């Protein structure tokens, strides 16, 4: 398997970020949700204006994954007040980790996860955590395989649909597999 090139996303990359955010979100959730709920979420949360605000937040970081020169996926992590929940002290949130479907099985997700774990070590957090839709079995298995465990749940609003996310965490140690 080829190694992905993981690079920081900058404000001037916002259009690329919008495009991959929408594409991966539709691929992942489009078949399980209504068009209206998907459109509302995309308009509110994945717009150029919204993602520009997120890119400008010093407590959020985005990374693109390129495989064979093609944009394959992306990662968003949050620290401190940028986190969507504050249930764990000294933690980092993985808010988004997505690979385009055509890159599934090519270690893009694994390499983005490794980047997240490196960031957690660099920032000396005690935990890394995320929320994952309870119906997204593929992602849940990926997180379990990477050492995450369920510790709580929360509501994720997609358009007008209130969905349940499992909150998963991993304790950070000095080294990773």
The succession of helices and strands, N to C, reads EHHHEEEHEHEE
Strand content: 25-35%
Q: Number of helical segments?
A: 5
Given helix and strand content, the structural type is alpha+beta
- What spatial order of strands do you see in the largest sheet? 1-2-3-4-5-7-6
Low-confidence stretches: none
Biggest pleated-sheet summary: 7 strands, mixed
Inertia-based shape? globular
Count the strands? Answer: 7
**Taking all residues together, what is the mean pLDDT?**
93
| Radius of gyration over all CA atoms, rounded | 15 Å
Helicity range of the residues?
A: 25-40%
End-to-end Cα distance, whole Å, is: 17 Å
Structure summarized in a few sentences:
The protein is of the alpha+beta class.
Mind explaining what this structure looks like?
By secondary structure, the chain is of the alpha+beta class. Helices cover 34% and strands 33% of the residues. The chain contains 5 helices and 7 strands. It has a 7-stranded mixed beta sheet with strand order 1-2-3-4-5-7-6, sandwiched between helices. Strand 6 and strand 7 form a beta hairpin. Helix 1 crosses helix 3.
